[in-house]
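Quick look at the format.
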Amino acid sequence: MSTVAEPQDTHTRLAPKGRIVFLIRLKPRSVDRFLAAYEDVRHQVAENVPGHLMDQVCQSPTDPDNWMITSEWDSLDRFLDWEASTEHRTLIKPMRECIDRAHSLRFVVREETAPK
């Protein structure tokens, strides 16, 4: 007799980590303002937001207005709680002013490989 594992509940204390991906198109000539705003935001989030583990900002090598921000959280719920907060909206406002369009993707980390 075989058994099928139940899907992992993402709303428990043992919830898997969350990975957030923002695909961003900047307004023309706003790279410097965007990077300055990101610099302010990343330190405040890293030091003050529960559940935040790390983030990266990446620029396309062929299109300087095309960007990606990824962040990792100890659970997707922690990110969603922060994203819904007034603090989040206030903090990212200077970045938002530089963005022409953006798309957000949210993932639950199911498997992870790290160096031995």
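Next, a different chain entirely:
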Amino acid sequence: MPVTTVEKDLDALTMTVVADFPVPTSRLWDAYVDPRQIEKFWGPPGWPATFTRHDVTVGGRSEYYMTGPDGERAGGYWEFLTVEPGRSFEVRDGFATPDGEPDADLPSTRMVYTFKPTGTGSRLMTRTIFPSLEALEQLLSMGMEEGLTAAMEQVDAVLADLASFAADLPAAAQLLDDTRVRISRVIRGPVQTVWDAHHDPALMRRWMLGPDGWTMPVCEVATSVGDTYRNEWERDGGGDRFGFTGELLESAPPYREVTTERMIGVEGPGAVNELTLTPVDGGTLLTVVVTYPDAETRDAVLGTGMVDGMETSYARLEAEVLTPA
């Protein structure tokens, strides 16, 4: 059992949970910053979590919900206050309403996660700071201690599963709910370089091409929130041109941006793309959460082979842009 101690200090309004793991701190850190991994243990047994947003940067935010055995949902969020990569992060932790907004009827806490090496692996210390004695007593009565320790007891299985999260895996899609899908891949390059490759037209024309045999004659990048972008592709020698356009809604270089997207010449609602870049062991974890207007549109787009095309582009990015000549 990884949890070694649980200490509650009613005077200091804190609860501290210490757990030891037989892996390097970098492996444990990655399990917490990778949404594919943390959602496998964050919810207590019987309440698996789904993270629809997880950008581990100062000012970033996580949004998740846990699904109970009868389909009921309980939502939560983190607001990242400090982040020291590989060492610690501090969040404001709170409950969320069904529409994802903070639940004002329940107290929020501050939680500090500290990762330290040990002689046999690594140690994680989770310190929860409550706003008042009443909040401490309320949250403990709701099962916070049991839920937190039960979740941490599931971490070992995720840490041992190296194959599912290896850096050399191709891009893969995971359905998050009826309208959202998350595409994930580790890109073997630093975050800033991967960000630049997504925003420099000269670089984008080298790799963002999908299957072989296509060119990108139009590449107009949105540089400020409110700007529009436009990308168009055609076959080598011309023909079959198509493209996408949209608006830049949010930008936090080099970690996150949110854009709208619609196919040029096609009527109807488009999609919203949330790009997140996270440094991990082996490179940069790239995740794109795409929100479609409905499940039918989502499934139709995925059925076109979109993810395979993205993988071809990401492999080209690594081989032709990120690998030194």
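Residues 306-322 form the longest helix (17 residues).

See the schema section for token definitions.
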